[in-house]
């Protein structure tokens, strides 16, 4: 094989690789001519065939079985360490949003005295806490 | 549980968030093999892979309310698993940067006559490919397998690795070149 021929093959293989990674990187007509070259050139034909085998081979790598006690271990761990994922997270977000709105309201309309503002704030916080306590007391739907 | 196993990820996540732990058990059953094998391919150790897999599911459960349900669950889960495996790699060599560790090829073991014979006699491509992959850098092996064994898209791999798609393509380009080169060497060995 001449040096020129080798350069062409190597260049085409590189380009075809890029096309395989990103089909938009190479013109369609160029892909067709590269494919025609690969069909004609004995070396490139083998190169392409080997690559196809390798890609297929990846799918034939046997998966190992996961440890038999994996599910039990995970579930046991979740029992011991209760999730921070609260089923009532929506309520918490709602309560936080209410607090923001309340504080904004106070800022806009103002309160007569500081004591009045504190009284309103404390009563609101107690309301939110009560709501949270009642929410936590609700039975959880665990199977 | 059999009924739960027929549900899609979104439904199972919704039920889990409502407090139905059995739905999460279905998620664990559905993905345990995938997560374990992806982690194993990074660590090449059964026991560590089992620990990381277990931690992955626990972390995923705790963070489930932060998961954006408009997105796909699998890459999100695999990202947690990948980070867990990277932490183990880092913990084993705390004084080296993660980049250096990921670029480090496993030490080549001296090949005995039997090893060479085994390689030569190996007729299954998957088996031979696995030998080739074992000698590759962990990051290249990981990207290669996510793409060609798991059929994940570049976008999904990018999400899992936390790297832009262009980086993934470039990693994959290098991984492919390496696989080809090493695989061809094996072919030559078989033919010779």
Overall description:
The complex is a heterodimer of chains A (143) and B (192). Chain A is mainly alpha-helical and 143 residues long. Chain A is 74% helix and 0% strand. Chain A is built from 6 helices and no strands. Chain A has helices spanning 3-21, 28-40, 42-59, 70-80, 89-109, 114-137. In chain A, helix 1 crosses helix 2 (28-40) and helix 2 (28-40) packs across helix 3. Mean pLDDT of chain A is 74; it is low at 139-143. Chain B has 192 residues and is mainly alpha-helical. Helices cover 73% and strands 0% of the residues of chain B. Chain B has 10 helices and no strands. Chain B has helices spanning 9-17, 21-43, 46-62, 73-92, 98-103, 113-121, 125-134, 138-148, 154-161, 165-191. In chain B, helix 2 (21-43) runs antiparallel to helix 3 (46-62), helix 2 crosses helix 4 and helix 9 crosses helix 10. In chain B, 38% of the residues are buried. Chains A and B meet through helix 1, helix 3 and helix 4 of A and helix 2, helix 3, helix 7, helix 8 and helix 10 of B.
Give me the secondary-structure topology:
The complex is a heterodimer of chains A (143) and B (192).
Chain A: H1 3-21, H2 28-40, H3 42-59, H4 70-80, H5 89-109, H6 114-137
Helix pairs in contact in A: 1-2, 2-3, 5-6
Chain B: H1 9-17, H2 21-43, H3 46-62, H4 73-92, H5 98-103, H6 113-121, H7 125-134, H8 138-148, H9 154-161, H10 165-191
In short:
The complex is a heterodimer of chains A (143) and B (192). Chain A has helices spanning 3-21, 28-40, 42-59, 70-80, 89-109, 114-137.
Which structural class matches the secondary elements of chain B?
mainly alpha
Largest sheet of chain A: none
Beta-strand residue fraction of chain B:
under 5%
**SSE string of chain B, helices as H and strands as E:** HHHHHHHHHH
| Structural class computed from helices and strand pairing of chain A | mainly alpha
